[in-house]
């Protein structure tokens, strides 16, 4: 069984994340979206909201599930018996950063990292940009899945 972990903070999930997950569905038997928890970090959205956003966005996709975790992604992979880490790449800077992590993870665990390039129409979107747009009252709706848009309307 080909099982992949897609780790991140997803604060919030963006259309870029959504696209990577959707495009990876044919590649894996199971995709676990793993929301990393870092006590040092200040999040815009609660862990419960971030989990719900992803669950709602993929409610009709049985191959996709969501977990939260602390610690190393490779430890989560071992615990959940996942053979792959899935990552999206937007630009050359992402590649350089992710390459170093992938080499380290493979050295420590033999777990392979699979990279998907973001779609051209979402390659400029990042969670930090979305948070900045929301904070400043901008039109963020075209950057995120419907579940995030609904939450922020309340």
TrEMBL record:
Its EC number(s): 2.7.7.3
Organism: Flavobacterium luteum
Keywords (A to Z) from UniProt: ATP-binding, Coenzyme A biosynthesis, Cytoplasm, Magnesium, Nucleotide-binding, Nucleotidyltransferase, Transferase
Species lineage: Bacteria, Pseudomonadati, Bacteroidota, Flavobacteriia, Flavobacteriales
Sequence positions that bind ATP: 9-10, 17, 88-90, 98, 122-128
Annotated site residue numbers, Transition state stabilizer: 17
Oligomeric form and interacting partners: Homohexamer.
Protein name as catalogued: Phosphopantetheine adenylyltransferase
GO CC, alphabetical: cytoplasm
The reaction(s) this protein catalyses: (R)-4'-phosphopantetheine + ATP + H(+) = 3'-dephospho-CoA + diphosphate
Pathway(s) it belongs to: Cofactor biosynthesis; coenzyme A biosynthesis; CoA from (R)-pantothenate: step 4/5
Family: Belongs to the bacterial CoaD family.
Residues annotated as domain Cytidyltransferase-like: 5-132
PANTHER family: PHOSPHOPANTETHEINE ADENYLYLTRANSFERASE
Major place of residence: cytoplasm
Subcellular location, record wording: Cytoplasm
Cofactors demanded by this protein: Mg(2+)
SUPFAM superfamilies noted in UniProt: Nucleotidylyl transferase
Any single biological process term in GO: coenzyme A biosynthetic process
Chain sites annotated for binding substrate: 9, 41, 73, 87
Free-text function comment from the UniProt entry: Reversibly transfers an adenylyl group from ATP to 4'-phosphopantetheine, yielding dephospho-CoA (dPCoA) and pyrophosphate.
Pfam family, one: CTP_transf_like
Gene3D superfamilies for the chain: HUPs
Top-level lineage group: Bacteria
A GO term, aspect molecular function: ATP binding
């Amino acid at each position: 069984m080909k099982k992949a972990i897609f780790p991140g903070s997803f604060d919030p999930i963006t259309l870029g994340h959504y696209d990577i997950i959707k495009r990876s569905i044919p590649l894996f038997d199971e995709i676990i979206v793993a929301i990393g928890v870092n006590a040092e970090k200040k999040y815009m959205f609660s862990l419960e909201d971030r989990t719900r956003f992803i669950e709602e966005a993929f409610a009709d996709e049985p191959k996709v599930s969501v977990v939260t975790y602390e610690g190393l992604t490779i430890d989560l992979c071992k615990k959940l018996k996942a053979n792959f880490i899935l990552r999206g790449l937007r630009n050359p800077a992402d590649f350089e950063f992710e390459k170093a992590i992938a080499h380290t993870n493979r050295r420590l665990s033999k777990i392979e990292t699979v990279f998907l390039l973001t779609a051209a129409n979402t390659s400029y979107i990042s969670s930090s940009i979305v948070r900045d747009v929301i904070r400043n009252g901008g039109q963020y709706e075209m950057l995120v899945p419907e579940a995030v848009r609904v939450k922020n309307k309340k």
